[in-house]
Design a protein that fits this description.
The structure holds 3 protein chains of 3 kinds.
Chain A (H helix, E strand, L loop, with lengths): L6 E8 L14 E8 L4 E6 L5 H8 L7 E6 L2 E2 L5 H7 L3 E4 L3 H4 L6 H11 L6 H13 L16 H12 L6 E5 L7 H18 L2 E6 L2 H7 L2 E6 L2 E7 H6 L4 H8 L4
Parallel strand pairs in A: 3-8, 3-9, 6-7, 7-8
Antiparallel strand pairs in A: 1-2, 1-4, 4-5, 9-10
Helix pairs in contact in A: 4-5, 6-7
Chain B lengths: L3 E12 L2 E13 L4 E5 L6 H9 L7 E3 L2 E4 L2 E2 L12 E4 L3 H4 L6 H12 L4 H14 L5 H6 L7 H14 L4 E5 L7 H18 L2 E6 L2 H7 L2 E6 L2 E7 H6 L4 H8 L39 H5 L4 E4 L2 E4 L8
Parallel strand pairs in B: 3-9, 3-10, 7-8, 8-9
Antiparallel strand pairs in B: 1-2, 1-4, 1-5, 5-6, 10-11, 11-13, 12-13
Helix pairs in contact in B: 3-4, 3-6, 4-6, 6-7
Chain C lengths: L1 H31 L3 H5 L26 H37 L1 H16 L2 H12 L3 H28 L2 H8 L4 H37 L11 H8 L8 H35 L1
Helix pairs in contact in C: 1-3, 1-10, 3-4, 3-6, 3-8, 4-6, 5-6, 6-8, 8-9, 8-10, 9-10
The chains are: A alpha/beta, B alpha/beta, C mainly alpha.
Chain lengths: 258, 317, 279
């Protein structure tokens, strides 16, 4: 592979501070290392307390990192601060679990989609309106949704809006945090299909964080399993699924298969 | 005689914009000692069915049924009477079911006192015994703890212990593992299976997760748009589903398709809760629909103990 | 009408009626007052200290001026007083609370400790001290009260902002690269503004009461401008023989302040009731 991986994490350690007199707690993330190659999907799986949420928030620069490095498209991501960081955030689109929480309840869909564009300096006008219309149709939403508000939408529709917003600035990397965990199975299928279409049409790299191993096994090229702060599996999906190194992984895979 | 015998239950909630048909026509037969799964997606009425059995429907809701019996007793007017006596509830969020400012000992004691007159020491011993029965390794420590000091799995076990303390022999478990990790949830399901075997309990398991049905249930009923559309032993329902919705639901699961392939999503969306449905509720989305399907309610089809409602003949599945 | 009663209850509706009446009287004073000139201050010495009668419904004061007209004209002063106090307090308190809640850290600490200093004093006492230091007068009394009131709005604003700042959609905006000023303008300010202005509107009552207290002490509006507090003070010399001089404006203050209070309770109950219903 001649180009840099889009995301390269090396020996990342994240530790939460305890009280003044308490002993140093065990790290939430204990030296995680992995790469996401361009155009691929990396699934990060773990249960509560595994550290996957801390890892994700650190990548999003919402948490401080104790040691280690994160490179985004070859660039030192952790070194960016302030205005430079704010601008470079355009390169990552983020979708959270509950669209009804991550979409402003007061703004219309059109405002929600316009917001990142305006923040990046675009001017309101017909060009922006065209871009917004394009986003809507790419995400399978009808044009008359522009005037609606998030609470008028179903869970699946709202999540599509969240995905459209994440793609507003044409990022190269899409990070999704449990995007289908709050959705019904049939709606989940629609969203996963949409993500796979968008990945192809927009040449996206995808980081998909979830507790659901089955979902991630279906859509990921590479898989990372976390447990109690440690990375216990990392490799191509088919390798991890067919020959899991850890008993824990086998246990997760076997649930529901009597 | 089934322990819970429901035929054509309907629950309608009047609102200023028209009646919301939360449950349209649900039929359930649960035998003693069985773990019966009720599966469906959001809006199918599964939780409201459980609430109807517990007598916890919203004020003003209208309940009607051809038959609505628990252990021979008619539940139509007074389902609430059996709640806390013979019927217990284990719901999704164990932390919400426990009072955060009271110790576990105190909360267990409250429940035990309501059902048995025992002196204080005996009640404490009973509480410890119940906690031990749910597999908690150190009941004394748990008794001294507060809910926030316990993990989700432990909290759920405490909730189950409370249900046992009431002497209930029928438990309604509404998404009991959804808020828990997969491995912890598996342990809770194992616990329920064990309690059913050891104490002769019966469980109504409400879930949206096929894996839970596969792991823990003996028989299952599939709900769609407030109607029960299929019922039967779990193996039959999951491996040879009769109803097109069940088939579509199973096909939409991520592990039903080869990795990387498109998932078989279901077109369309569920009927609006205020709408009136003639014929089959799934007709608008069914890949095998015929004009008859929207016009006439579908008849019952059978294959041994496996039943479903469809206009298509049995062998079309 | 019944919907109004449904939402506010009988006490609340009555209180609302009184408040609306209060504002109407303030606006229409010159046309409603039986003796507009006297209301504005012109003496009528021949009729001085007359008891309530057909000609002078609430009696007259020591300069013979119709008390009813004086009270009606006093409404203008009270309303303006109340509104300006609240407006000034908001003007100072809202930005302080916004900055403290949004930026947190040492900004929050510094601003909140500053607020604490003001809150450490009993409000009325502080207002009296400020007014005494500034001297009597319309604007001075407003400033004196606003200086003691803004910390409450700062606290309120800060609390609202803290909740909003933690909302996932605000975090989502940060992740999309939206800058702080934009977030404050589009997400924080509109949501904070609403509860704060409702609170402010209802605070006009208590503000007016505080202003009346200052005038009573001689630290507010100067005669001949009609002012309820000042009238109560002036009537003290003639109490209890010519009881109407102090009692009438005193009763008015009581009724209007009570009306605002009851209305505030009714609106708060309704908001909380609505929250319970939708939960």
């Amino acid at each position: 592979m001649s180009s840099d991986p889009i995301l390269d994490v090396d020996t990342l350690v994240i530790r939460y501070r305890a009280g003044l007199f308490a002993a140093r707690p065990k790290p939430a993330v204990n030296g995680a290392s992995f790469r996401l190659e361009k155009g691929e999907t990396l699934g990060i799986v773990g249960e509560s307390g595994s550290g996957k949420t801390s890892l994700l928030r650190a990548i999003l620069r919402l948490l401080p990192v104790e040691s280690g490095s994160i490179r985004l498209g070859g660039q030192d991501w952790l070194a960016l601060k302030g205005e430079a960081l704010r601008q470079h955030r355009q390169r990552i689109g983020v979708v959270s679990q509950n669209p009804f929480l991550s979409l402003s309840p007061r703004l219309t869909i059109e405002d929600i989609l316009a917001e990142p564009m305006l923040a990046a300096g675009a001017r309101p006008g017909s060009a922006m309106r065209d871009r917004i219309a394009g986003l809507l149709s790419d995400c399978g939403l009808p044009a008359d949704f522009l005037g609606r508000r998030a609470r008028e939408l179903s869970g699946g529709q709202a999540q599509r809006v969240a995905i459209a917003r994440a793609l507003a600035l044409e990022p190269g990397l899409l990070i999704l945090d449990e995007p289908t965990s709050a959705l019904d199975v049939s709606v989940q299928a629609q969203i996963l299909n949409l993500l796979s279409d968008l990945k192809e049409s927009r040449s996206l790299s995808i980081l998909f964080v979830t507790h659901n191993l089955k979902v991630v096994a279906h859509i990921s090229d590479t898989l990372l399993v976390m447990r109690r702060g440690d990375v216990i599996e990392f490799g191509r999906t088919e390798d991890v699924i067919h020959a899991p190194a850890q008993a824990y992984t086998r246990e997760l895979l076997s649930f529901g298969r009597k | 005689m089934p322990l819970l015998d429901i035929r054509n239950l309907s629950v309608s909630i009047p609102t200023p914009d028209g009646d919301v048909h939360a449950v349209r026509a649900v039929s359930l037969e649960i035998e003693r000692g069985e773990i019966h799964g009720v599966i469906g997606e959001s809006g199918c009425g599964k939780t409201m069915t459980g609430m109807a059995v517990l007598g916890l429907v919203p004020k003003g809701a209208r309940i009607a049924a051809d038959r609505f019996h628990f252990d021979g007793e008619d539940l139509s007017d007074h389902a609430g009477r059996l709640r806390g006596r013979r019927i217990g509830l284990i719901s999704q969020d164990p932390a919400a079911a426990l009072n955060p400012v009271l110790s576990i000992a105190r909360q267990m004691d409250d429940v035990i006192r309501a059902h048995r007159s025992l002196p204080r020491k005996a009640r404490r011993a009973e509480a410890a015994a119940l906690l031990a029965a749910t597999g908690l390794p150190d009941p004394e420590k748990v008794l001294k703890s507060y809910p926030h000091q316990l993990s989700g799995g432990m909290q759920q076990r405490v909730v189950i212990a409370q249900a046992l303390a009431t002497g209930a022999d029928f438990l309604i478990a509404d998404e009991p593992t959804t808020a828990l990790d997969v491995s912890v949830g598996a342990q809770v399901l194992d616990l329920l299976r064990r309690l059913v075997a050891e104490r002769g309990l019966t469980v109504l398991m409400i879930t949206h997760d096929m894996d839970v049905i596969a792991e823990a249930c003996d028989r299952a009923t599939v709900l769609y748009a407030g109607r029960s559309v299929e019922t039967g032993p779990v193996a039959g329902v999951l491996k040879q589903p009769g109803h097109p919705y069940t088939r579509a639901l199973l096909a939409a699961l991520p592990d039903a398709a080869p990795p990387g392939a498109r998932l078989a999503a279901i077109d369309g969306s569920i009927p609006a809760p205020r709408s009136v449905i003639t014929g089959c509720a799934f007709a608008a989305r069914c890949p095998q629909a015929m004009p008859l399907c929207s016009a006439e309610p579908p008849p019952e089809r059978r294959r041994d103990a496996h039943r479903w409602l469809c206009h298509l003949p049995e062998d079309a599945a | 009408m019944t919907r109004l009663v449904q939402r506010l209850g009988w006490p609340g509706t009555l209180a609302l009626a009184i408040v609306v009446l209060f504002v109407a009287v303030a606006l229409l004073a010159p046309w409603i007052a039986p003796y507009p000139a006297q209301g504005a201050g012109t003496p009528n010495v021949l009729a001085k200290l007359s008891p309530p009668s057909a000609g002078y419904w609430l009696g007259t004061d020591h300069l013979g001026r119709d008390i009813l007209s004086r009270i009606i004209y006093g409404t203008r002063v009270s309303l303006t007083n109340g509104m300006l106090i609240v407006a000034f307090s908001l003007l100072i308190g809202l930005p302080v609370g916004l900055a403290a809640g949004y930026f947190g850290g040492w900004v929050d600490e510094a601003l909140m400790r500053g607020t604490d200093i003001f809150l450490a004093f009993p409000a009325l006492l502080l207002a009296v001290l400020m007014a005494a230091a500034l001297g009597p007068g319309f604007l001075n009394s407003i400033i004196a009260v606003a200086v003691t009131w803004w910390p409450w709005y700062a606290r309120l604003a800060r609390a609202e902002v803290l909740v909003l700042r933690g909302q996932p959609y605000v975090e989502a905006a940060r992740l999309a690269g939206v800058s702080h000023p934009r977030i404050i303008l589009r997400h924080i300010l509109p949501a904070t503004g609403r509860p704060l202005t409702v609170q402010a509107a209802l605070d006009v009552g208590p503000a007016l009461l505080t202003a009346a207290a200052l005038s009573f002490l001689g630290l507010g509006v100067l005669p001949p401008t009609a002012d309820w507090g000042q009238m109560v003070d002036a009537g003290r010399k003639f109490f209890p023989d010519r009881w109407w001089y102090s009692a009438m404006p005193g009763l008015t203050i009581f009724i209007v302040a009570l009306a605002f209070s009851v209305l505030g309770d009714a609106l708060r109950d309704r908001r909380q009731g609505a929250r319970h219903a939708s939960a």
